[in-house]
Amino acid sequence: MTQTFRHRALTALALAASILPITAQAQSKPAPISEAEVRAHIAQLASDAFEGRGPGSAGETKTLDYLAKTWASYGLVSGTNDAAHPWFQPVPLVERKPYAQAVHATARGKAVKLAEDGVALSGRNPADRATGEPLFVGYGIKPDGTLNADVKGRIVLMLSGEPKFEGAAKLPGLRDRQKMLAASGAAAVLITAPDGVPWSALRAQLANGSMRLASDDVSAPIAGVLRGDVSEAMLRAARLSAADAGAKAAVPGFVPVTLPVTLDLATSTAVRAFDSHNVIGKLPGTKPGSGAILLLGHWDHFGICRSEEAEDRICNGAVDNASGMAVLLTVAERLARGAQMDRDVYFMGTTAEERGLLGAYYFADHPVVPLGDIKVALNVDTVAIAPAGAPVALVGRGENGLDGIVDEVAKSMGRTVDSDTEANAFIRRQDGWALGAKGVKSIMAGGSFSDMKLLQAFLTTVYHQPDDELTDATPLGGAADDANLHVELTRHFADEAKYPAAPTGD
Ligand SMILES: [Zn+2]
Questions:
Q1: Which of 376, 504, 480, 363 is nearest to 431 (CA)?
Q2: Does 363 map to a domain?
Q3: Which of 25, 35, 79, 82 is deepest in the core (most CB within 10 A)?
Q4: Residue 279 CA, ligand 1 centroid: distance in Å
Q5: Residue 28: which pLDDT band, with cuts at 50, 70 and 90?
Q6: What is the CA radius of gyration of the chain?
Q7: In this predicted model, what pLDDT tens digit does every residue of 65-74 receive, in sequence order?
Q8: Cα 405 to averaged position of ligand 1 atoms, centre (Å)
Q9: Do 141 and 83 belong together in one domain?
Q10: Same domain, yes or no, for 235 and 153?
C-alpha cells in the first residue's frame, strides 16, 4: 500500500462518513449514491494528471492504479483468477502512428496533381512503399462474400460503404474486407472516405494512430483513406463517376477496373507492440458454482490527442468514460458494504474500447470464468448526460429477455421506463457487443440513452474532443440515478432465487 493509496482510501471513507449520518451507517441500507460521490471519481480520472487515459501511456498506469486500489479499499479482491496477473489482465496490442507520407501520381509518363492533404496513409512497418496502377475493386467482394479479384502485389481502391447486392446474405463489413485484401497479398488497400464523417475529424483520428489486438493484426503494407475529391479524380481517369462506380460495383458480375494512373506511395510509421490491461475486481458470492454477474465499463480514452502547438492537448474523456468508471466504483462500494450476494460479481474496466472494443474482445476470447457462467453483463458507458429523473432506456432492448426485469427494478425505484428501441442504435458501439456477440446476455441500462436530443448534443460537440472535461455544468444527476439503478440490478441478478438464469449456450 502506497502513501497515496492510504490517503485515497481515507478520503473515500471520509466522503462516505460525511454523507451518512452515524446512525445510518450502522443500519443495513446505506444512503443512495450521490452526485458528489460520482463527481469525486470523475474529477480524479478525468484530471490532466491522468493524461486522458491512453492505453500504453503513463495515464494507463495511473488509471489502473486508481481503479484497483479504490476497489481493493472497498473490499474487492482480484478478479483475474490468475495468480500470475492479479487485478490486471494483459491485453497484447500493436499501435501504429504514421508520421510521414509521400504520394506521387503519373499518367502516361506525366505527373498528375493529387491533393496530398486528401490522402491519409499509414504503413504496417516503419517504412513501406507501393507502386503501380490501382485496381478499383468496388466493394471488393462478390455476392457470395469472396474476393472479386486477384489483388496480389496490387494497390487496391475499395468503396468503404456496405455492399448492397440484391438478395445476398450477410456480407463481410469494411474491416473484414480490408483484412481479406491484405491476407491475399494486396500491397496497399485504399478506401474512399466513409460518409458522414468530416474529413478533418477523420484525418485527426488517423493521425492519432491505430491499435489492434496482436492476435488480429492483419493489414496490408500500406493502408489509406482518400477524400472524396481525390477518389473521384482517380475514378474519372477510368471514365467512372463516383455515383456510377457505386452502382456498377453492386451489380453481380462486376469486374474490377485498373485505373490508368500510376501511384507511388511511401509511408513512415512508428510501430509499437505493448501490453495494455483490463482491470478486474471481484466481490465473491456465497454460492460458488451459481454463476457470475459482470459489470464493465471502459477506462481508456484518447490520451494526449493533439499536436504540441495545440492549447489543450489532452482528451480527458470526463463523460466518455470517466463517468462510467465512477459509477462502477460507487456501485462496488455500496455492494461491498451490503449483504453478501449469492453469485460472484465481477467489476471490469476494459482497455482500448475507443480503438474498437479491443479489451472487451480480448476478454471475450480469454474470459476469467467460462462465458456460459456469466449470467448477465451490464455495461456502463457515457452516463453523465441526463439530469436526475430521466427515464431508463435499454441498449439491447428486445434482444435477450431481460427487459421485464430491468423495467420492474427501475419502476420499483420510482423511475419511469423508456420502452422504445431507439437506444439499440448504439448496440454495436459499446463493449457489451463483444460479449453479446458470443451469447452473453448483455445490456446497457440508464438515462443517457433515453433522451436522444441530449445525447446527440454531446456526440456532436465535445465527444472525443479535448473539451470532454468535467465542469460545474456536467450533469451528474442521471449518473447518480444510474449508479443506484445498477446497485439494485446487480443485487437482483446476483440473487439465485430472484434470477434463476437458465444455463446459456457454451
Ligand atoms: Zn468514445
A1: 363
A2: yes
A3: 79
A4: 18
A5: low
A6: 25
A7: 999 999 999 9
A8: 28
A9: no
A10: yes
The CATH number linked to 156 is: 3.50.30
My answer on whether 183 and 296 are in the same domain is: no
- H and E: helices and strands count for the chain: 14, 19
Measured in Å, residue 333 CA sits from the centre of ligand 1 at 25
Q: Considering 198, 227, 259, which residue would you say is the last residue of a domain?
A: 259
Å from CA of 300 to ligand 1 middle: 9
Query: Domain total for the chain?
Result: 2
Residue 416 CA, ligand 1 centroid: distance in Å? 27
Distance 320 CA to ligand 1 centre (A): 5
CA of 301 to the centre of ligand 1 (A): 7
Are 148 and 67 contained in the same domain?
A: no
Instruction: Give 1 Cα–ligand 1 centroid separation in angstroms.
Output: 32
Question: How many A from CA of 464 to the centre of ligand 1?
Answer: 6
- With H, G, I as helix, E, B as strand and everything else as coil, classify residue 44: helix
Residue 262 CB partners (closer than 8 Å, separation 6+): 105, 106, 107, 131, 132, 133
- 368 and 342 fall within a common domain: yes
Whichever domain contains 48, its CATH number is: 3.40.630.10
pLDDT in tens, 495-506: 999 999 765 443
Region label for 225, one of left (φ > 0), alpha (ψ between -120 and 50) or beta (otherwise): beta
Of 225, 259, 293, which residue sits at a domain end?
Answer: 259
Q: Is 506 among the domain residues?
A: no
277 C-alpha to center of ligand 1: Å?
18
Q: What is the pLDDT of residue 37?
A: 98
Q: Grid coordinates in use for 130? A: 507501393
Residue 27 lies in a domain: no
Q: Which domain holds residue 175?
A: 109-259
Regarding whether 290 and 249 lie in a shared domain, the answer is: no
Bridge partner list, 242? none
Q: Which of 213, 183, 209, 205 is nearest to 273 (CA)?
A: 213
Q: How far is the CA of 307 from the centre of ligand 1 (A)?
A: 20
* Distance between CA atoms of residues 17 and 14, nearest Å: 5
For residue 381, the CA-to-ligand 1 centroid distance in Å is 9
- Average pLDDT, integer, range 457-472: 92
Within this chain, do residues 210 and 352 fall inside the same structural domain, yes or no? no
How many whole angstroms from 458 Cα to the centroid of ligand 1? 11
**Distance (Å) from CA 354 to ligand 1 centroid:** 5
Is 143 within the bounds of a domain? yes
In the beta sheet, which residues pair with residue 102? 266
d(CA 13, CA 20): 11
Model confidence, pTM: 0.87
Question: 441 alpha carbon to ligand 1 midpoint, in Å?
Answer: 22
Mean pLDDT of the chain: 91
CA of 463 to the centre of ligand 1 (A): 7
Find the 394 Cα to ligand 1 centroid distance in Å: 18
Centre of ligand 1 to C-alpha 401, Å, is 27
Both 165 and 314 in one domain: the answer is no
